[in-house]
């Protein structure tokens, strides 16, 4: 029985590869749901992410994304699911209300597992005192960590903070760092996932 499950999983991964090659993302979602049914829990958060961000052939569905993320957290405490829920609660979308306290809990869980993207949101929260004490030193630490994870947008926040702190040369340096790091990513992939807009 165990071998059959392993073979089924292997076959589904092959089918997912084929669907990805054909850009059939709707089929990818359906196949990943089958994987989740076999107990491949890492598929759950990826399904949530597809519904959260939307892809060709799959409409954005925030409630569906939240359901998959919650299931991934319940089943295996997946850090990617914490990151996804943190993003959704950070801005509030559709029927999901903005909730910085919930966002903070999930983002910290993701951040503690090395997902430095969460640090961008946490840095913004520390800058404004949302769900944590207003502390620009803490915010700066989060943003600097995010730059180490190759997220150019973190430089923009660092530039803003340097400008507000009366450090014009440091501000210019951060602006240049954002430009060059963004350019490098665009050369390798114009749609690189680390190239994203400033959150609301």
Automatic annotation (TrEMBL):
Source species of the chain: Duganella aceris
Xref: SMART domains: SEL1 (SM00671)
Name used for this protein in its record: Sel1 repeat family protein
Keywords: Repeat
């Amino acid at each position: 029985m165990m071998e059959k499950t392993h073979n089924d999983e292997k076959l589904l991964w092959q089918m997912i590869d084929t669907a990805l090659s054909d850009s059939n993302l709707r089929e990818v979602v359906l196949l990943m749901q089958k994987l989740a049914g076999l107990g491949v829990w890492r598929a759950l958060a990826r399904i949530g992410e597809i519904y959260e961000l939307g892809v060709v052939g799959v409409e954005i569905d925030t409630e569906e994304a939240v359901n998959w993320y919650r299931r991934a957290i319940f089943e295996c405490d997946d850090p990617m699911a914490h990151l996804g829920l943190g993003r959704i609660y950070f801005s509030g979308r559709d029927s999901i209300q903005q909730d910085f306290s919930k966002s903070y809990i999930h983002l910290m869980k993701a951040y503690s597992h090395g997902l430095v993207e969460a640090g961008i949101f946490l840095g913004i929260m520390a800058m404004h005192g949302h769900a944590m004490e207003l502390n620009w030193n803490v915010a700066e630490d989060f943003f600097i960590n995010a730059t180490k994870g190759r997220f150019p947008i973190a430089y923009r926040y660092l530039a803003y903070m340097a400008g507000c702190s009366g450090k014009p040369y440091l501000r210019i340096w951060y602006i240049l760092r954002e430009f060059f790091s963004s350019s490098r990513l665009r050369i390798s992939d114009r749609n690189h996932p680390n190239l994203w807009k400033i959150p609301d």
